[in-house]
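Sorry to interrupt, but I need a hand with the structure work. Can you supply me with one protein entry, sequence and fold together? No commentary is needed, just the two lines. Leave the record below and I will have a look.
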Amino acid sequence: MVVTTSQIQGFFDILVDNLYAELVVLQWIRENITEWRSHIIVSRDAAGTKRVISIADRLNVEFALIHKERKKANEVDWMVLVGDVKGRVAILVNYMADTCGTVYHVADKLLSAGATKVYEILTHGILFGPTISRINNAVYEAVVVTSTIPQEDKMKLCFKIQVIDISMIPVEAIRRTHNGESASYLFSHVPL
């Protein structure tokens, strides 16, 4: 069942907005990845393509995607890279990761296709089960997650995990809504 915003608004009988982390992801890329203008944004699957295209467009860089078929959850049967990552840093952007069951395979696929480094940026890093050992054993430069879920304990076990603080997004959205200002400004105004 797909629930639309208007259905949610009707259920709660108030206006509802999704808060997106795209602006802080863009800022993190600009501030932490050198020469980001020559790199490529990659989607780990077809479902994330729209999100990756949006970020690539805002950065004015190219994008690629990995198409994969699964035998079952967290187990990839096969995958193919659509796009050219040769000689570039590949920046994977994804909504969430739980066990990182495909993390090792995706990073290897990108490196074998010629990527020089691989980063992964997640909105929600659930990261349970064998995740920490998988990230530690994968060839990622960093796995970057937003602060929607506390990561302090995991960061002690894995130096590759970095956190983007998003605490100001809901605070500013609430302030703008309370003052009758546009909250959409938070998601459309990106200084380059």
Notes: The two ends are 38 Å apart (CA to CA). The domain at 19-188 is CATH 3.40.50.2020 (Rossmann fold).
